[in-house]
Give the backbone structure.
Amino acid sequence: MFFHIVLERNMQLHPRYFGRNLRDNLVSKLMKDVEGTCSGKHGFVVAITGIENVGKGLIRDGTGFVTFPVKYQCVVFRPFKGEILEAVVTMVNKMGFFAEAGPVQIFVSNHLIPDDMEFQSGDMPNYTTSDGSVKIQKDSEVRLKIIGTRVDATEIFCIGTIKDDFLGVINDPTTT
Amino acid sequence: MSGEEEENAAELKIGDEFLKAKCLMNCEVSLILEHKYEQLQQMSEDATNQMSQVFEKSLQYVKRFSRYKNPDAVRQVREILSRYQLAEFELCVLGNLCPETVEEAITMVPSLKSKDRSLNDDAIDKMLNDLSLIKKFE
């Protein structure tokens, strides 16, 4: 799920950036530093949408760098266990398939794919029901439920399932 | 990490910070990100190089999964859903997935039926109806 939240960060700024454009420099450095990063607590920082307030700077002993506490609003993407969302299938193999929902990767193991769906190898590997009516392959859109998350230093990785009511393929690229 | 173990969106256990935070539906994120993308393009020519991968992937994702494209419709969806005393998170799950039946809605958002919520099936049905009307007249 995407959220709009306020985060705080202490920004260190070199004295050469001081002057009229101090605030602009601070903001562009902030964007460069945090946009695209990921933390386990807040998820992926997608975009900064505004600066709430810039606190008083504090000169660091010995270096001349100044630390400013900056409060900023941003859009983050944070997946939760138990959350249901839509995702695009990116890779299919006999172990299961990978899907992407925005910046996050989700793996659905073949144990968590309905039992009536069989793996079919070939140049377009896919999972298909015995009557061929439902097919999961690269670029399919699926609705899945996140059942576990693993947090790395720079990434969040999810495990999902489509073995439940109202989950599964919502759009098959071959039929549209 | 005990707090993380207990996390469960189905019971609305997403941590205090996120529970109070403003949730965004995919269509709202799409409006925000496209606006930001246009700004970036105006500032420099190689806007695509400046975007982080996270930004790019999110933009693609929300464009693909936005149920409502028109900004007015997006506003209406939020307005209608906010009449039902939903938590931010529940509101956004419903807005994103647009369930068609009451049963589907409850499966998508089990917390709708939890506690002593005043929300009965008829109310949910009306809510889903209103949502599909917006989609129809968009």
The radius of gyration of chain A is 22 Å.
